[in-house]
């Protein structure tokens, strides 16, 4: 019977949970995995209602109603191209392939163009929320043609996270736009996480707060303007103990991994001439953390100041300053991410709606935060907003909170505690609000050694000076 609504290939945890989510909402789902993995074995042994496992790709495809919708939940990169090649002989004109992995958006654009020539529809879909989100409701960012999106929109709307009944899925734009937006989501995820990690470091090392105290602080902050998924899980992580009563956080190796999406965001910032220093610095912070062996050597060779703890009478103010600095850092990181999407939207003619993007980030995804309501409101008033920091609500916060950021960065620096993303946030903020920067000297140097020319502030035109002429 060819009447199943959608097929999912890739029965890893994400694929399986997404398939279960779709089946739970009443759709018939065919599933296939290249190998007969553990999950497939379980699916055959203990069938799940409306979920149909297949061992042959031909039978899997034939089980789908036309036009067939086949969703790939597999590792990004070459495996996606290989699988598309495998699928092609079984598909007919008008069928739809959906890539639900964390694919690089330029690959998605290439695949979209390639498949269009073969009359196969293609959607590159960003999905955020981890394994739990996939099962209970992710945030979904589909990119491709609107016609292709409409084929699966009812399913996506049903399975997506809901923010006060509003579905966290919106058509993003053509070709690679969905994966691009997911990539920037991840870039913001990196800086959000790094800012929280630096906060943890300051509270632990400068204020001397223990894990339970730290957990309480994050749980308390989560009741206010910082309210977000990442603050919430940090509160839970810090108080978690193992079977021996040890705090797990104290036993985790301080070497952070990554799968590359933050790096792609940073690279895109460079490609599109858009300063994403906060996101980029958070990627470098992960890289540096992974140089554990070097850091151990450096700690015995390279010196720094003694840490002097914050005095009891200053603790309360310092903790308050950290909270404000963290919120300011978060705002600037989102502002950089949205500026990058704005530049990409113009570059690729995606016509992105930033208000809608902020809305679908409000539930299901990893960077979900109360702050996104204000971001969405700011862009719904003006999608062409030059910068999020210019919206009155954010302007007022940054104008008041930058004093706190200065205070904590200067105390961290004088104590030799590394706060790369807080520092990057402050440097960006100060550089951004500076009318007369030092770039005049850069231009003079370029002209001196390379005749690269410069503009003058008092006359129009292009100038070159013979700098050696006395
Ligand atoms: C999400 C996440 C997810 C990502 C992990 C790991 O939105 O659900 O962004 O897609 O894979 O966060 O990313 P790193 O391994 O690069 O930290």
UniProtKB/TrEMBL annotation:
Which InterPro entries does the entry mention?
6-PGluconate_DH-like_C_sf, 6PGD_dom2, 6PGDH_C, 6PGDH_Gnd/GntZ, 6PGDH_NADP-bd, 6PGdom_BS, NAD(P)-bd_dom_sf, Pgluconate_DH
Q: Which reaction does it catalyse?
A: 6-phospho-D-gluconate + NADP(+) = D-ribulose 5-phosphate + CO2 + NADPH
EC number(s) on file: 1.1.1.44
Quote the Pfam families the UniProt record gives.
6PGD, NAD_binding_2
Q: 6-phosphogluconate dehydrogenase C-terminal domain spans which residues?
A: 178-468
Q: Which Gene3D superfamilies match?
A: 6-Phosphogluconate Dehydrogenase, domain 3, N-(1-d-carboxylethyl)-l-norvaline Dehydrogenase, domain 2, NAD(P)-binding Rossmann-like Domain
GO BP annotations listed? D-gluconate metabolic process; pentose-phosphate shunt
Q: Which UniProt keywords apply?
A: Gluconate utilization, NADP, Oxidoreductase, Pentose shunt
Mention one GO molecular function.
Answer: phosphogluconate dehydrogenase (decarboxylating) activity
Tell me which domain of life the UniProt entry assigns to the organism this sequence originates from: Bacteria
Ligand binding (substrate): 102, 128-130, 185-186, 190, 259, 286, 446, 452
Report the enzyme's class at the first EC level.
oxidoreductase
Q: Does the keyword Chaperone apply?
A: no
* Keyword ATP-binding appears in the UniProt entry: no
- Write out the catalytic residues in the record: 182 (proton acceptor), 189 (proton donor)
Look up the record and name the pathway of this protein.
Carbohydrate degradation; pentose phosphate pathway; D-ribulose 5-phosphate from D-glucose 6-phosphate (oxidative stage): step 3/3
Described by its record, this protein's role is as follows: Catalyzes the oxidative decarboxylation of 6-phosphogluconate to ribulose 5-phosphate and CO(2), with concomitant reduction of NADP to NADPH.
What is the protein's quaternary organization? Homodimer.
The family annotation for this protein states: Belongs to the 6-phosphogluconate dehydrogenase family.
Q: What is this protein called?
A: 6-phosphogluconate dehydrogenase, decarboxylating
Q: Could you tell me which species this protein originates from?
A: Buchnera aphidicola
Lineage in the entry? Bacteria, Pseudomonadati, Pseudomonadota, Gammaproteobacteria, Enterobacterales
